[in-house]
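User: My instructor asked us to take a sequence, write out its structure as tokens, and then describe one feature of it. I'm not sure where to start. Here is the sequence I was given:
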Amino acid sequence: MVLPEKGVWARIVRVNVYLKFTVGIGLAVASAVVTGLVAVAIHNARALPVSQDYRVELTTGESFSNFAERLAEAGLIEHPRLWSWQARLSGDARKVQAGEYWLRAGDTPRVLLDRLLRGEVVFYETTLLEGWTIKQVLAELAGQGTLQHELIGADVATLLGALGLPAGNAEGLFFPDTYRYQKGASDSDILRRANAKLDQELARVWQARDAGLPLETPYDALIVASLIEKETGRDEDRAKIAQVFISRLRLGMRLQTDPSVIYGAGSGFDGNLTRKHLRRDTPYNTYTRRGLPPTPIALTGLKSLEAALHPTDGEFLYFVSRGDGTSHFSVSLEEHQDAVRKYQLK
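Assistant: Let's start with the prediction itself. The structure tokens for your sequence are:
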């Protein structure tokens, strides 16, 4: 039997030791990786320690690890470093989107992370109603605590300038609708959107208007539509009221619409329209002045806009409220006076 030389034996021993060491290190690393993956899996599947919904914010430029630490400090998440390590390892930490998010009771870390990846931010809503004046619009926005307030002190005369729009009277220049917004939005943002939407809707309906209307501009149509908006909330009556106004304009008759007189009376109006109001001349008194008032008197919805530009066919020149939300329409003054006695002078 021939044995290896002494030097060869030494090399064999060193190789054997190296292999055992390398295999040992590899097994240790593999074990650590498996342990880490198991820990991540358990962590991702375990509901967060919250019993109610919270709003949390990942601010612009904030690192994901800092966000995780903040949630941990607030008691909203456990093991922030493990959560951050997983997000960095997968590349998700660079893909999350800044914003305010719901953290729901029962959410797991994985569910919350996916929500941040999809950008499912919290949305708020504010509603501007048909028939509102600018004063009411500004009061609604001022009461929204989630908006940034940039329009404090603005009014109907200064609002457009504050929004960076061409100066003028702002009454009626915003579309009534429900507007959704994220945290950080301002009252100015809402009104710029509302103004742009009105421009879009008004241009569209003006393009499709009936031929031969005694209205020179889209703004004229907006004024008529605002009068209709304040005269009725009943869809079936809008186009009939439009027909009355259009017929009177064609004949050169005064419009004699009470809502315009009330608007011209200003904040001093106490809710009781009297003969004194009807005789007091203002730019909005359609009993003393012919033609249209100088501006719209309220926010106007799409149905009133369409009615103003598509009035019904007819010869009505008068209408009066029945007191139940509907209106009685008359062709002659005599018939109208009978209707007033029946429905208004009970």
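For the description part of your assignment, you could build on this observation: Strands lie at 54-58, 99-103, 124-127, 178-181, 318-321, 327-330. Try explaining in your own words what that tells you about the chain.
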